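**Protein record**
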Amino acid sequence: MSKRRSLLRFGLFALAFSFFFLFGALAVDPFPAYRAVMEEWLAISGGHREVFAADDGSRLSVWVLGPLSAERPVVLLHGLGADASYWAGTARVLVRAGRTVLLPDAPGSGRSEPPRGAAGYRIPGRVAALDGLFRALALEKADLVGHSLGGWTVAAFALRHPEKTGRLVLVDAGGFELPADIAAERRRVLPEDRPGARRVLDLLFFRRPFPAAGFVVNAFGRNYGGDPAAVTVRSLEVSDGLEGRGKDLPAGTAVIWGEKETLFPLPLGTKLAAEIPGGRLFVLPGAGHDGPLETPRAFREALSRALTSAPQSGDSR
């Protein structure tokens, strides 16, 4: 009996130690802890991680969920300051619907190594990294979904490689209307102190999916004020922009946008959808820039409709 009590006490101690250790890790920096949980979720869902070489020799990472023999996988590309784990919940839903899903870490993000030079953070470098994924996994064609900077990237990829692009879905995508004052925009999105971190938090979320505790705000400041986010924002050039290129995107490209978006306000999404031949606009009520996290059910319903084979009447709303 005493042995059982000792084992029970040890188990309770281990559980309490794990809880306080995890709480301490979250308080210091919640991003790695969050990523670890989401990656475990992906692994439980049958996903595995593969590594491939970029053109410059750096090593890039991608999560693969489902058979690569699928006729047309879905590639989900995250935005600035995020990584592949951003899409964990969405990926699970798509896998349950029978789709093969690929979640790459962009150069320098997540478990992908930084590019060898600053040019690798620019849009052409990101497009080349995505093309490297296609070559490494022998993909002929894939449906492409990109959020924010990821939307900018998949749109540029579709323009450069239309033969490899299936359905294209742009989620609160950047790059289609560049600000007149680039320096001011860089200051707006790169926090230098706690007030700046709160500003970025407000730009990203209208309906925060987590409490904005002090340690969370500090973590956002470190994440968006440091590399790779900072070096990416400073590396992007006006020539990377896609202004006026909506008309050249694949017909039927879907645009998903947050109703309460402040980083790239909704009129930009409405204008983009109108430029695209047969463009489809899906507005997420009550969502800001991060609809996939703020209103996940509405986002996944919109994404499901966006990934249908053809535009349907009444898609714009």
About this structure: Strands lie at 48-53, 59-65, 74-77, 101-104, 142-147, 165-171, 254-258, 280-284. Residues 30-178+238-306 form a domain with the Rossmann fold fold (CATH 3.40.50.1820). The longest helix spans residues 2-28.
